[in-house]
Amino acid sequence: MIHRVELSEQVQAQLSTYVRQTGQTEDEIIAEAIQKHLVDLEDIRDAEAVLNHPGQRWMLEEVERGLDLAG
């Protein structure tokens, strides 16, 4: 699928510099950046779900006792 993205002059200059430094193509860099950002967004979504519906919480001492790690 083809998408058109307009970049600011500053971002385009940074992208061009990175292309020259790494030998990667603009498409490779943009695709990787989007993929990493999507993973971050998924992590944020999951963290917000836990914060909004925390369920059971344990203190460190409780976990250690349950695993027989204390003492």
Secondary-structure class: mainly alpha
Quaternary structure type: single chain
Topology, number of strands: 0
Low-confidence stretches: none
Q: Mean of residue pLDDT? A: 92
Q: Given the structure, what is the number of helices?
A: 3
Range of strand content: under 5%
Q: Can you write the helix and strand succession as a string? A: HHH
The biggest beta sheet reads: none
Our Rg estimate from Cα atoms comes to: 22 Å
Plain-language structure description:
The chain has three helices and no strands. By secondary structure, the protein is mainly α. The longest helix has 27 residues, at 26-52. The termini are far apart. The mean pLDDT is 92.
List keywords for this structure.
mainly alpha; 3 helices; single chain; 71 residues
Topology:
Blueprint: H1 9-22, H2 26-52, H3 60-66
Short structural description:
This protein has 71 residues and is an all-alpha fold. It contains 3 helices and no strands.
